[in-house]
Design a protein that fits this description.
Elements: H1 2-24, E1 28-32, E2 44-48, H2 49-71, H3 73-113
Antiparallel strand pairs: 1-2
């Protein structure tokens, strides 16, 4: 509950600030993607300024997510390995349980046969 409240207290003000930033920066700008000839650029990208801001934030979120995913690779590998070990141990326990049950059944049959 506290975590959800904290998330809402952070998310809503951030979203409100983003909306205010978008509304305040609606004018068109031109991004020049030719650093060698800025007076007569070959590659230009005209768009509203907020599109560049939102695009930069999206690229940052994606790069951050990718970096986090890459850094957690060792934990995912450990989890896969431990899951395989647990499945192997469970199969062994079930096999031993079946063998024990078979031995108990065989010994009961021997006792009743005498």
């Amino acid at each position: 509950m506290f975590k959800r409240l904290l998330t809402l207290l952070i998310t809503f003000p951030a979203a409100l600030a983003l909306v205010v930033l978008i509304v305040a920066n609606r004018h068109n700008v031109t991004m020049v993607l030719d650093p060698f000839n800025p007076q007569d650029p070959g590659i230009v990208l005209p768009a509203p300024f907020y599109a560049f801001l939102v695009g930069a934030m999206l690229v940052g979120v994606m790069l951050g997510g990718f970096a986090t995913w890459m850094s957690q690779g060792k934990w995912r590998q450990t989890a896969r390995r431990r899951t395989q070990e647990a499945m192997r141990y469970q199969a062994e326990a079930e096999r031993l349980s079946r063998e024990r049950d078979a031995q108990v059944t065989a010994s009961k049959q021997l006792l009743t046969a005498e």
